[in-house]
Structures are given as structure tokens and as C-alpha cells.
Amino acid sequence: MAYAVLWYLIILLIGVGLFPISFVIFNTLNDKGYGFSKSLALLLWGIFFWWGSVLKLLNNSFAGISIALIILLSISAYIYIKHSKEINAWFKANILNIFSIELVFLLAFFLFAIWKGFTPSISTTEKPMELAFINSLIHSESMPPADPWLSGYSISYYYLGYVLVALLAKFTGITGGIAFNLGLSLIFALSAINAYSILYNILSIKNPKKKKNNKLASFAAPFLLLLVSNAEGFLELLHARHFFWKQNVDGSWSSKFWQWLAIPDLNTAPISSEPSWLIRNFQTGSWWWWRASRVIQDQNYIGQTKEIIDEFPVFSFRLGDLHPHVLSIPFAILTIGFALAIYSKQNIISDSNINKTKTKILFDYFKLSISPYELLFASVLYGSLMFINFWDLPVYLAIFCAVVVIRNVNEHGWEWKRLWEFLIHFISVALLGYIFFLPFHLSFASQAGGIVPNLIYITRGAHFWVMFFPFLVPISLYLLINSNKSKKMLLSSAIYTIFGFLMLLLFTIILSTLIVSVLPSISDKYSQAASLFMQNMKAPNSFQDLILEGLKRRLLQPGTWLTLIGILTLSISSFFRIKSANKQKDIHVKEKLSADIFINILLIFGALMVLAPEFVYLRDFFGYRINTIFKFYYQTWLIWSIVAAYLIAQLLSIFKDWKHWLISIILIFSTTTGIIYTAFTIADVLPEMNKSFFDNWVIDGTSSSLSSQAEEEAVNWLWSQPQKVLAEAVGDSSYSYYARISSHSGQISVLGWKGHEGQWRGSYEPQGTRAQDIQTLYETKNVDDAQAIIKKYQIEYIFIGALERNTYQVRDEKFNTIADKVFEFGEVMVYQVR
User: pLDDT value at position 437?
Assistant: First the structure.
């Protein structure tokens, strides 16, 4: 717990120390970026340190990390001196708001850390991989860090998020096993205060005089983002209560509803003959909570089900993977905050001043509606998203560019050149962001292979509503109540939306035709791609039949696209309603309406993210849209949680009579459907928490992740040694116990998880004969053969434990002639090459 307190204090202090930077960047927001200051401070600290290390100006040491922080604090101090009066005055006037933000951060960090202390293990799913990255970063002398599972190579993965965790670990002198779980706690807390702050600032634009109400309403954003799940938990409870099940005379169970819903496990008969208020397998140690992340189901042409990942934050934090999509949550919300700050300038800058801020770049037609300083910060901020989790970049940068364009529309009116402005801003920021982190991109390889048309995979409406039910209810209610009453505008919006949908469908068919019928005639490479495209869908020989099947599925199961068409139609029509109201001369009315416009932008981009996989997906090792749904839906969850929180606040303020109570009941019900899963997930660890706290609580995940005390002692010894190449057993698959020593010790394995290395690099070629060579190293009796392998990979340490003996016929006598036994505990031995 002392380490948890230490991390909390460090983030608290750097957040305050670097607040002047936030004050300048987010000056147009009500809280001046105080809520974002902790995330921004940590991000800038990591970037400064990373660049210093890449340029060989800073060592990966306490001193190097401290120098990077001192430079940042010096910049912050300079800004404070220039703006001391404004900053001091703001602090005096906003004590209660500061207290609210700090309370959210304090509670989120420590409550999650306490809960995590009862499930600290770092041994399942992809946690060993993430731990390996953190430990390699802690031990690496400089950047880019060594790949812990492929000696001789640097990490080919989005690793900036791991830099931030490793930086704090190195600064506080703790091991990766502790840093992993504290890092997860920190990401949870930073996400909470960023969500709180973004909603508070939007509400402050909408209702600037209702500060107390805005503070209370803002708690809804972190609540919906981090504590509300999809509706699968509610369905679990209905299942346990035997709703929609009928027990037949022969004792068997049947249900048309559950068979129609077709969510795995929920379509199987109840376990108990008596209805229960506890969901199946609760507190049994089973992963019953996993089912909620597999609601969406795809089917190939012949009807075979293909698993789809549909994670959401509650599941992610329960699973405990410190994966890029989790690490990026607070920074993704930070970019929304920056977009809001840029957008808010329309309320405080006159037309003439806006014209003065335009920046010419290269040619007259390259005009940006942001200042050079805003362009620089945007490039760093959105460039860092590429480095933390590349999947985040398109949607959040698009939101930023849309905000800039809408601001120009509000100031200067609509012209078709606004689309060109959107493109120029997107390209400029993305290109400069890419250049800013160029050292990372030069060493990065990816499995991504372009866009693949989606002909037949569709998301059923029932599954889509189960996935987003707590958000779709307030979104639908608000849009219906506040939609444009003009039938002409609604019709126009519907026509635009349906036309866009048909164009996407046409694009999908044309692209599919090119892949299957046109490109194969050009080269064998395209012919193989076409064959793979058809195989992944188990397609028939007739391409026309495949197209017809896709059209039939869309017509017979239209729930998702009808929902999205409805949301987009009503959202677009709302722009016309807001535009009409915006013609009023009252500046305060305009400011209030600008909050609705910003929320509308978020709502539309969230809808577009879930619409895209209905027509295309990104090509990768999986061959279908499992990863695209996962990453796109996750972004929608983050965006719509903010939207839903804002809309709930508005819905509760619209009516004061019986309609208010009716809306309240509907909203309470929709939110409750997402709380049931969370409540059971938290309570699932109660058996451990009910025991003695001090006997069972531990934040270090190392001991619970290794198979024996001997391995733990060996890892501790290796941790204290300089980072070198390690030989350990290599397995055939990922998600295994293999590579556990390199993961926990910070040493570099010759080869770790083969499957993941192939995914990270888009090829298995760099692995070469490593797996066979390691087997030879352990099994050969010939000293010369062993020495040749040691020299080939520059192996320093040879580890022998139970897994090595079970995997190979280990002949360790030869190592005595070429290495020294530097560690021995039971059956575990570590040799160091002479």
C-alpha cells in the first residue's frame, strides 16, 4: 500500500506542478484543464524522457527520468510566472471544483487498487506479454527498448503506454509485478477524472450559472464509462430466474426467446431447477464474466459461428489486461477535451481575431484554422495516440477536425470547401504527428494489411442493443424528444443518411468485385488474396451468390443498420434545428447551443464507428472482423458514455411533471441493466475479501503468477542483473506459461510467444529457426553445437526449471564446461555463460 500511496502522491504533485501548461492549452474551458492536467503531465513526461533516451541524451535511469521532469517543471514555472495572476485567481475561485476532481481521482485510484489487490495475478490472457514489455522497458539502457521475446530486435508494438508505467516504476524503484497493477489502477483513476472533467466543461458551456448542478451531474460520466456494462448481466439474471424458459414433461428445458437471441451460454438450459437470484457459476472461480465480451456473433456463408470480441471498460478492468486499448482510455478522452477547448474558442474570439489565427502552410490552399502552437500541440497529442494505440487515431483526430470545420461553419457559413478543410487538417496533424514520433514508426512493423470489404458479416440488431443498451436508451429518448419538428428537414436528413448507407453498400460490392474478379487476372499475388477472401467466409463458388446472401442478411436482419440510420437521421436534422436557433443574436443562447452541437458531433462519430464494420474491416491474421469490431466498438463505448451522461442530465431537466418521472424510471431501468454485471463482478472476489485483509491483499502480481518459490527466487536474482539474452523453453502457442521467466525478470528471451511475435511483425520470418535451436541447446550432448547456438544469439543466461525439463530432454551436464551455475534453488538452475 505504501507504493500505491507513493504513486498517488507523485501523480498528484506532477499534475499540480505542470498545471500551468494545461492552463494555457485548455484556457477556454471552465476548469482550465485542471482535470486533464494529471494525464497531460504524465504523457508529456513520458514523451520528453522517450525523446531524450532516443537521442542518447538521457539514460534510462532515475537520473535521466528526473532530468526530463525537471525540464518540464522549468517550462511550467516559466508559464506560471507569465500567468501567475490569472492562475492564482482561478485557484481561489475554483476550490470546490478542484476538490471534486481530486475526490474522484482519490477514490477511483485507491478503491480500484484495493480491489485489484485481491486479484493480482499476471498469468493469464495477454498479461504476461504486457508485463514483459514493462520489465524490458525498466531494464533497457535506452530507447527503443529491446523486444523481451525476440532477442536482437526492438519492440514492434504500440509501447508508449508501457513507457509511462515503466517510467513511474523506475522513478519509484519498484518491480514490474507491482507496477503492472498500480498502472492499471492509475489508468482507471485518470480515466475517471478525465471523463468527469469533459462532462463538467460541456455542461458549463450549456449551463454556466448552475455550477453546483454541473458538478453533481458530471459524476455520471465516469460512472457510465467505467462502472456500467452492456446488458448481458441483466440477461444473465433473467436466465437464472428462468424467464422465458419452459420445463417440459421429460424434464428438459426449451425457450424460443433464448434460442432466437442466440448469445452463447445464454441459449443453454438453466443449471438449477429452482430460479435463483445469483447468476450461473457466481463465486466458483470460473470466468462466468467472460461471456459479456462475446455478445456479438458472426456467421460465415455456411452458417458457422465466428467469435467476435466486444469488450467494454468494466470487462477490461476485471480481466486486468494492461493492453493498449486500456492504456489509451484517459488519453483518448484527453484528445476530446482538447477538441472541446479548440471548439470553445468560437465563443470568445471575434470573426476578425479568428481570421488572424489562420496559418498558411506551403501554399495558399493549405490554410489551417488553428494557430501554429495549436497545430504543434495537436500533432504531439494525436501523434502520441498512434504510439499508444494506433486504432484510436482516426476517430479522435476526425472529431478534432470536424470541430474545427464546424467552428468555421458557425463563423463563416457552409461551403463545400469545408470538406477540403477537414481533409487538410486531418492530413497535416497526422503527418506531423507521424514525423514527431518517427523513431518509433521506423522500427514498427504491423500485421495490418489494408481494408477488406464485408459482404456477409452483419451485427444483429438484438446483439447491438444488448451491447449498447444503457447508452441507446437515453440517446434514442433525447433524439426523439428534441428532433427537428420540420418534416422537410427530417426527410432531407433521412435521404442523406440512406444515400450514404447505399453508397457504402455499393462501395463494398465494387471493392469485393475488384478483389475476386478483376485483380486476380493481374498477378498471382492478387489471386491468392482473392482465394483467401473467399475461404474466410466459406463462400460458394459463385460470387453472385455471396453478394445475394449479404443483401438477404441485411434485409432480413435490419435491426442494427435501421437503428444507426435513425440515430444519424435525427442527429443530422438536429444540426438544422440548432442552426436555425443559432441565428439569434443573444450570445448566451449561442453558447448554450454550442454544447449541443459538440455532443452531436460525438454522437455521430460514435455511430459511424459502429457502422463502419458493417461494410469493411481491417485485414489481419484473423481474416475476419473480430479485431475491427473490438477496437471500433470500444471507441464508441468511450464516446457514447460521455454523450449518454450529458443527455441524461438534459433529459432530467426537460420536464417537471409526470413526464419527468416517466423518463426517470426509463433511465434508471436502462442504467440498472448495465450495473447488474458490474455488481456481480465486484462481488465475485468477496470470498477473498472476507478473509483477513492483511493476509490476502497484495498488489505485487509476481508470486501468484509463477509456479513455485524456486522460480520466484530465480526471477528475483535475474531481476537484479543487467539485461542480457536468456534461454528458456519455447512453446508452440501463445497464451501459455512459456516465456514466464523473461516476462517477470526483464531479461530478453531468444523467443517467447511465437504467435504474438508473428502478429506484431506481420510475419514469422524474423523467428527463423530459433525454436529448433533452443531445443537443440537444451537437448544436445555436443558442447560445440551448444556453443554455436549461444554465440549465434549472444546468450548470457540459461534457465532450467520444471517447464524446461517437461518440454525438452534436458542434458545440463554440458553447461558445466561452458557456463557457471550462478543460481540454484531446488530443481531450478540458472547458468551464466563464461
Answer: 95
Nearest Cα residue to 339 out of 417, 407, 412, 431: 407
Q: What is the DSSP string of 266-301?
A: TTSPPSSSS--SS-TTTTSSS-GGGGGGG--EEE-T
The backbone region for 691, taken as left when phi is positive above 0, alpha when psi lies in -120 to 50, beta otherwise, is: beta
Partners of 154 in the β-ladder: 146
Question: 825 in the Ramachandran plot: left (φ > 0), alpha (ψ -120 to 50) or beta?
Answer: beta
Smallest Cα–Cα separation from 742: which of 732, 752, 734?
Answer: 752
Whole-number Å distance between alpha carbons of 564 and 615: 13
Task: Assess whether the previous peptide bond of 20 is cis (omega < 30° from 0).
Answer: no
pLDDT computed for residue 154 by the predictor: 93
Tell me how far apart the alpha carbons of residues 397 and 381 are, in angstroms, rounded to a whole number.
Answer: 10
Q: Is the peptide bond before 144 cis (omega within 30 degrees of 0)?
A: yes
- Is the four-CA dihedral 586, 588, 594, 599 of positive or negative sign? negative
Q: Which 3 state secondary structure label does DSSP give 685?
A: coil
Strand, helix or coil at 140? coil
pLDDT score, position 274 = 86
Helices 84-93, 62-82: inter-axial angle, 10-degree rounding = 90
538 CB neighbour count, 10 Å cutoff: 15
C-alpha to C-alpha distance for 433 and 396, rounded to whole angstroms: 13
**Pick from 741, 810, 763: nearest CA to 131:** 741
Distance CA(520)–CA(527), nearest Å, equals: 4
Q: Are 755 and 739 in contact (CB under 8 A)?
A: no
pLDDT digits (tens, 9 = 90+) for 296-353: 999 988 888 888 999 999 999 999 999 999 999 999 999 999 999 999 876 433 333 4
Distance, CA of 400 to CA of 380 (rounded, Å): 14
pLDDT of residue 108: 97
Please report where in the chains the cell 521475446 appears, as a residue: 149
pLDDT of residue 124: 86
Residue pair 321/124 in contact (Cβ under 8 Å)? The answer is no
Estimate the crossing angle of helix 559-581 against helix 461-482, to 10 degrees: 20
User: CA-CA distance, 37 to 11, in Å (whole number)?
Assistant: 10
Alpha-carbon span 542 to 546, nearest angstrom: 7
Q: Provide, for the chain, the percentages of residues in helix, strand and coil under a 3-state DSSP scheme, each rounded to the nearest 5.
A: 65, 5, 30
User: For position 357, what pLDDT does the model report?
Assistant: 44
Cα angle: 465, vertex 468, 474; to 5 degrees: 100
* Cell output for 668: 434508471
Give me the DSSP letters along 188-246.
HHHHHHHHHHHHHHHHHHH-TT-HHHHHHHHTHHHHHHHT---THHHHHHHHHTTTT-E
Q: What is the pLDDT of residue 614?
A: 94
The CA-atom distances, in angstroms, between 161 and each of 203, 332, 395, 636, 735 are: 30, 12, 19, 21, 21
What span, in angstroms and rounded, lies between the C-alpha atoms of 633 and 308? 11
How far apart (Å, rounded) are the C-alpha atoms in residues 15 and 11? 6
Cα dihedral 450, 452, 457, 463 in deg (nearest 10): 30
What is the chain's Cα-based Rg? 28
Low-confidence ranges of the chain (pLDDT < 70): 346-366, 447-449, 484-486, 523-526, 576-592, 687-696
Neighbouring residues of 15: CB distance < 8 A, sequence distance ≥ 6: 37, 38, 41
The residues with which 297 forms a beta bridge, in sequence order, are 307
Euclidean distance between CA atoms 483 and 574, whole angstroms: 6
SS3 state at 748: strand
Residue 334 CA from chain centroid, whole number: 13
The answer to whether the Cα torsion of 587, 588, 593, 599 is positive or negative is positive
Could you tell me which residues come within 8 angstroms of residue 515 by beta carbon, excluding any fewer than 6 positions away? Answer: 452, 453, 526, 529, 530, 533
Determine the Cα–Cα distance for residues 453 and 533; give it in Å rounded to an integer. Answer: 9
Identify residue 13 by its one-letter amino acid code.
L
Of 55, 57, 43, 136, the closest CA to residue 746 belongs to 136
